[in-house]
Amino acid sequence: MSDAELYRQRAAHLRRFAEEAPNRAVRDQFLSVAAQYDKLVQRAEQRAAAERQERQVAAQYDKLVQRAEQRAAAERQERQQGCEETSQRAS
Protein backbone atom coordinates (compact mmCIF):
# COMPACT_ATOMS: atom_id res chain seq x y z
CA MET A 1 0.00 0.00 0.00
CA SER A 2 1.37 3.39 -0.92
CA ASP A 3 1.71 6.22 1.57
CA ALA A 4 -1.02 8.14 -0.24
CA GLU A 5 -3.44 5.21 0.04
CA LEU A 6 -2.69 4.79 3.74
CA TYR A 7 -3.24 8.49 4.41
CA ARG A 8 -6.45 8.47 2.38
CA GLN A 9 -7.77 5.55 4.42
CA ARG A 10 -6.90 7.26 7.69
CA ALA A 11 -8.64 10.45 6.61
CA ALA A 12 -11.77 8.47 5.70
CA HIS A 13 -11.64 6.66 9.03
CA LEU A 14 -11.43 9.94 10.91
CA ARG A 15 -14.39 11.31 8.93
CA ARG A 16 -16.45 8.28 9.98
CA PHE A 17 -15.51 8.98 13.60
CA ALA A 18 -16.50 12.62 13.09
CA GLU A 19 -19.97 11.55 11.99
CA GLU A 20 -20.44 9.79 15.32
CA ALA A 21 -18.74 12.42 17.49
CA PRO A 22 -20.59 13.29 20.68
CA ASN A 23 -20.23 17.03 20.12
CA ARG A 24 -19.08 19.68 17.69
CA ALA A 25 -15.64 20.20 19.29
CA VAL A 26 -14.73 16.53 18.99
CA ARG A 27 -16.14 16.39 15.45
CA ASP A 28 -14.06 19.42 14.47
CA GLN A 29 -10.92 17.78 15.87
CA PHE A 30 -11.50 14.64 13.82
CA LEU A 31 -12.16 16.69 10.71
CA SER A 32 -9.08 18.83 11.32
CA VAL A 33 -6.82 15.79 11.51
CA ALA A 34 -8.56 14.31 8.44
CA ALA A 35 -7.78 17.53 6.54
CA GLN A 36 -4.13 17.21 7.58
CA TYR A 37 -4.12 13.68 6.19
CA ASP A 38 -5.57 15.05 2.95
CA LYS A 39 -2.53 17.34 2.70
CA LEU A 40 -0.26 14.36 3.36
CA VAL A 41 -2.00 12.52 0.51
CA GLN A 42 -1.15 15.36 -1.87
CA ARG A 43 2.46 15.47 -0.72
CA ALA A 44 2.81 11.68 -0.98
CA GLU A 45 1.37 11.73 -4.50
CA GLN A 46 3.74 14.54 -5.51
CA ARG A 47 6.68 12.64 -4.02
CA ALA A 48 5.66 9.46 -5.86
CA ALA A 49 5.36 11.38 -9.14
CA ALA A 50 8.81 12.93 -8.59
CA GLU A 51 10.28 9.49 -7.89
CA ARG A 52 8.73 8.11 -11.09
CA GLN A 53 10.18 11.02 -13.05
CA GLU A 54 13.57 10.48 -11.41
CA ARG A 55 13.54 6.80 -12.43
CA GLN A 56 12.60 7.75 -16.00
CA VAL A 57 15.40 10.31 -16.24
CA ALA A 58 17.90 7.84 -14.77
CA ALA A 59 16.84 5.22 -17.32
CA GLN A 60 17.29 7.74 -20.15
CA TYR A 61 20.72 8.63 -18.78
CA ASP A 62 21.72 4.96 -18.64
CA LYS A 63 20.62 4.39 -22.24
CA LEU A 64 22.47 7.46 -23.50
CA VAL A 65 25.66 6.54 -21.66
CA GLN A 66 25.46 2.98 -22.96
CA ARG A 67 25.03 4.20 -26.55
CA ALA A 68 27.90 6.67 -26.17
CA GLU A 69 30.15 3.93 -24.80
CA GLN A 70 29.19 1.61 -27.66
CA ARG A 71 29.94 4.34 -30.22
CA ALA A 72 33.27 5.10 -28.58
CA ALA A 73 34.21 1.41 -28.59
CA ALA A 74 33.23 1.10 -32.26
CA GLU A 75 35.28 4.19 -33.15
CA ARG A 76 38.32 2.82 -31.27
CA GLN A 77 37.98 -0.47 -33.09
CA GLU A 78 37.74 1.31 -36.46
CA ARG A 79 40.84 3.40 -35.67
CA GLN A 80 42.73 0.30 -34.57
CA GLN A 81 41.78 -1.54 -37.76
CA GLY A 82 42.81 1.50 -39.80
CA CYS A 83 46.21 1.59 -38.05
CA GLU A 84 46.71 -2.13 -38.65
CA GLU A 85 45.89 -1.77 -42.35
CA THR A 86 48.26 1.18 -42.67
CA SER A 87 51.11 -0.71 -41.02
CA GLN A 88 50.45 -3.78 -43.21
CA ARG A 89 50.68 -1.64 -46.35
CA ALA A 90 53.90 -0.07 -45.13
CA SER A 91 55.55 -3.45 -44.66
Tell me the number of structural domains.
Answer: 1
Uncertain residue segments:
none
Described by the principal axes of the CA atoms, the overall outline is rod-shaped
Return the average pLDDT rounded to an integer.
93
Oligomer: single chain
Helix content: over 70%
Taking Cα atoms only, what radius of gyration do you get, to the nearest Å? 30 Å
The string of secondary-structure elements, in order, is HH
| Major sheet summary line | none
Distance between the termini: 71 Å
Q: How would you characterize the overall build of this protein?
A:
This protein is an all-alpha fold. It has one domain (3-90). Helices cover 92% and strands 0% of the residues. It has helices at 3-19, 24-90. The longest helix has 67 residues, at 24-90. 3% of the residues are buried.
Summarize the structure.
The chain is mostly helical and 91 residues long. It has helices at residues 3-19, 24-90.
